[in-house]
Amino acid sequence: MTASVVAEATEVTRVIPHRFPVLLVDQVTEMVVGRTLSARKAVSANEPCYRHFGPDQPASELDYPSMLLVESWGQAAVLLAAWDHPTSDVRSGRIDLAGAIERVRFLRPVRPGSVLEHRVRMVRAVGDTAILAGETLVDGETVLEIGHFVVALRPVAELTPAVVASPRTDEGTPT
Predict the structure, then answer these.
(1) pLDDT (tens digit, 9 = 90+) per residue, 109-122?
(2) Which of 9, 21, 121, 168 to pair with 37, CA 20 to 30 A apart?
(3) Coil, strand or helix at 157
(4) What is the pLDDT of residues 150-167, one digit of tens each?
């Protein structure tokens, strides 16, 4: 399908199970299903990662954590990989697993007030596994590059342990 899609946070949560405060994609601004996706995330000083900072904290100490920057881009990547197979509840249906990430480059810090623009490209999709790549920009300047990100979409039933019945005595109580 080549139709462009625009989705607000409510539509994003239809596709991935993340909710506040771990939902790190605010809006999908453009998508060619199965090929490319652009998404936004506004970085705010009110986020949990800044909770321990005081009001007089110098801006130079308010760098957005790199792990959250990668997580936000990764959520955008999973949106592209899983758009046609949404799972808003990980207890049923499918789980989206990050399998590997390589060639990650952080090019400059991101601070509160920045709007992240994630750009994701499908490199290859084989069955329920996808390889994606892309970057994140702030004000047109690249702040993060991702060489490859592997996501596997697996049925939850394949990942949960089988329930093993406990041995019982004649009285019906476990041994």
Answers:
(1) 999 999 999 999 99
(2) 21
(3) helix
(4) 999 888 777 777 655 555
